[in-house]
# Entry
Amino acid sequence: MERKDIFCNSMLDLNKSDIESIKCANHIVFFSGAGMSAESGIATFRGKDGIWNKFKPEELANFDAFMKNPGMVWEWYKYRHDIIRHAIPNEGHLAIAEFQKYIPKITVITQNIDNLHKRAGSKNIFELHGNIERNYCIKCKTFYNDIEEKVDIPKCKCGGLIRPDVVWFGEYLPEDQFKGAEIAASECDLFFVVGTSAVVYPAASLIYTAKHNGSFIIEVNIEETEISFLADKSLIGKAGKILPEILEKFNE
Ligand code: BV8
Ligand code: ZN
# Structure
């Protein structure tokens, strides 16, 4: 029987045959959003304590806002960078990295800019929205990993403004990252959607790409989302709890 037919569309957690089917997967994708890092102490965007509740994305995460008020945007990114710098990968990040030992190919596609998947040991990662640990000059494109924390508006040697290397609203995603993510979504057996409200595009379109490819979709979220209808299994709970549980069942 075709592997994917074994799964059924149910809200129950994974049963024995589901785990068996994960075991014989050749390529699993983990597509993650801010909920993946919530248990590492990094606030999500749209949850009840989400950072977008205090700030409007348009006011901060876009180029015009940056050019109008670079100091304010830098203040926000330094604040977030400080939280991220002190955050550590949680059990969910570690479980995803652990799966690399058992499955021939694991791909992580993340919307997060916090570098926690890499710090957890995941290797094959596509960062759709950039990385807060990188910055570059908008004029000469020189990259700066560390910027002077004390300087309000970091400037390049050429005099250009330095900005965080993240994708703002209205900006294109890095082509190589999105292309690679699309290929992974179009050829994987299993596609985990972890901790995302799936409202940001074109990132969220990858879930449809995976569905179209016939991948088995497993959602892990503390609540139902706009894409729960697409999931073959919707596991309601925290990523830092559910993913290690799946790994544990996997090793039973
Ligand atoms: C683009 C980086 C092409 C910066 C981010 C008008 C003009 C242009 C584009 C648009 C437009 N109108 C709409 C668009 C498209 C727009 C978009 O999608 N807007 C949405 C909001 C409607 N997209 C873009 O602009 C993209 N570019 O389209 O370019 C183009 C170019 C020019 C002209 C035309 C087109 C660029 C989008 C990237 C924006 N950058 N971040 C930064 O971080 O500062 S977006 C931001 O949202 C983050 O990257 C974040 O990852 C992403 C998605 O959010 P989520 O990760 O899902 O987080 P959220 O808080 O929403 O949800 C958390 C979930 O976790 C919840 O479901 C919660 O229940 C769950 N959860 C919580 N705790 C846990 C948990 N789950 C499990 N365990 C837990 N413990
Ligand atoms: Zn420069």
Remarks:
- Residues 19 and 246 are 8 Å apart (CA to CA).
- The radius of gyration is 19 Å.
- Residues 137, 139-140, 142, 156, 158, 160 surround zinc ion (ligand 2) (CB under 6 Å).
